[in-house]
Amino acid sequence: MELVSALPFAPAARVASGYVRDLASSDPPVGRARARRNERLVYLASHPIPVALGELAATIGPVVRVPGIGAFVTDVEVAREVLSNPDRFSKTGPGAVGAILTEVMGPHALLNMEGPDHRALRGRLAGLFTSRFVHDLVRQVFEPKLKETRVILEAGGELDLARLARILTGRMVCAMLGAELPAGREDETCLDLYRTGVELGSVATLAGRTLDPERLAFAKSRFAELTRIAKDAYERGGEESVPGRLRSLGLSFDEARGVIGVLFLAGMETTSSALPRIAAILMDGGHWERVNADRLLLPKAIDEGIRVTSPVPVMTRSATEDTLLAGKKVKKDERVVVFMYDLVRSKAYGAHPREFDLDRHIGRDLAHLWFGHGPHFCLGFSLARREIELVLETLLDAGELEVTGRTYGRKVLFPA
Q: Do the beta carbons of residue 344 and residue 74 sit within 8 Å?
């Protein structure tokens, strides 16, 4: 079953009869309001209770204890304190997502590691995603499908961008795993991989601190499907695949399988979540023409788009001891929830933080907080940005586009 549904696009001058034209760019204030509304609907569809709790908590104070969930953090500076102090707030303690990852993926999944072991593994992975490797890999993997995309747009057809994003990220996963796509079933195989990722991610919820036996068995079975593919590539040891590169870096397969699992889960779903939403924001708010006229704005548009969409909804930690956080007592083993939906919309990000702004300036201390902070900053940061950039370049080359319809993924881990 498809859990994340379509976001189709069509050239504005060639909209099929029967579609309601969405000409937001002709009225920028209306378009910006539409973009804000649609982003809120995306989050409400996937995480209705956390959104409501987070918005309420933000009106109360920087740290608010929510029974059954933990301490909600709604302040940027407090969030940085939590994310940069693993000695006080750990990814591996009770209630943190890292503890669940350990149950499913083993002890070497990066997101469930702290201290010297984590620093050592990160150090060994430093050369994994070099700029040249990322640039060449994305171009090679995406280009066959993007050629089809150009044909559709040049003919004035509609493009299901959410589906395209899932197929492209599925292609990337196959390339990184060293798996060949079966001829004639390339798209279906990629969509199957995406569904596997959705199913794997769906087992973790804020309501639970661990997995019951049934959900744990289900998650392990899905993870085993991935590692079976990855093991073949690891044993071959070729530099063209990530498992092979991990082997050349000296990682055992037990270490490599955890890294691969996190790259798959985070890289596939976050990119496929953010890409269609950023494109919609650019079109809704009347920014499309400006970026198309000045392509040097594209990296800024991607960074601002990821800030607004914040595809990773929450980051969790577990207090390692009784401590104070913004003057509030947090008990040992209590879960701390950093909810990005609220943080990126705080006044710390300047005027009108709920809006997309191509001219927004964000200081280095707050930049890319949605990719993590400190020792756990996202390993695939450059890969995700390059993937989004190449697809947006293809869409911009098609000229004027508009949104002709949209629906929202319900009860999924990564809003989409």
A: no
